[in-house]
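Issue: ligand-bound run for pyridoxal-5'-phosphate - logging full I/O for the record.

Environment: standard queue, default settings, no custom constraints.

Inputs:
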Amino acid sequence: MLDIKITKTETPKEKPQGPLGFGKIFTDHMFVMDYTEGKGWHDARIVPFANFSFSPASMVFHYGQEMFEGLKAYRGADGKSYLFRPDMNAKRTNATNERLCIPHLPEEDFVQAVSAIVKMDEDWIPTEEGTSLYIRPFIIATDAFLGVAPSKTYKFIIILSPSGAYYASGLAPVGIWIEDDFVRAVRGGVGYTKTGGNYASSLAAQVKAHDAGYSQVLWLDGVERKYIEEVGAMNIFFKINGTVVTPMLNGSILPGITRDSVLHLCKSWGIPTEERKISVDELIEAQKSGALEEVFGTGTAAVISPVGKLRYKDDVMTIGDGGIGTLSQKLYDTVTGIQTGKLEDNFGWRLSVE
Ligand SMILES: *Cc1c(COP(=O)(O)O)cnc(C)c1O
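Outputs:
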């Protein structure tokens, strides 16, 4: 158990009025904990949200030794605050840390820290339909040293941001650009970790896709550019001839918690699922023959993101009638229903924040 020291702000901010958007508004407090080699993690604390002061030589600024996570807190109809599978974020934190030579963070400490900061700023959890409190835990390397080596000191920080509904006017289909030039990750690399570098390297393709009128990039494998991997910050699913298919976890794909939840739900409903390689050619074939029934992305931010249109080179494929698939809608309603306490939690995924 962490012994968390609490310093309350003396100048609480006004709660936001009007649309929240995403990631621009921050709550009154943050969680901070330090790591020092030989001493381990220490000085767990909740303090007023404020700027930090760092040496310009801090390692994170130069070689990107950092990790992050993303999850949400929801306000239930019963007035309680809920987290969704935070133990999975704790496990993934350590999978990332191990790859990036960041020290192990005990899973129970991660969950305790997230719960404590959410409890502290609980009255910042928005209550309108589709809104939530976005939680951003991250770890940065803080040694003031320009040599390339694992840092000996780190900071673990958690900040909170009240967020609006991802789809301002209800669930809506997106257009996706299948990138045939740039790649995101290769096996043996860091594709399965949540680290900033993966995002820095994705920006050029994202700009290209946006300029062409598409909202997200779908990545192909880094070697042959032939197999489907995932979308910018979402995993991807295809319903082909009644079977739900998603790329298998191969080391270059991020193991999404929403992905895992969707697989569990489909199985529990008796829908056949497959985790395997899917080539872009197979996808084009399935679309031409009419076997491709639905496409949707999964991730914490949007939960389920129906795909209405896919572009690959000169091919523009409309999925179904370009609208929201029946399964996509059912998954969205079920996952958000479990998250907010509207539906029964048969899998034990919901954690009430005490
Ligand atoms: C975070 C993330 C996802 C989605 O993971 P969830 O746990 O479902 O939010 C998918 N792909 C990438 C690259 C990500 O960073």
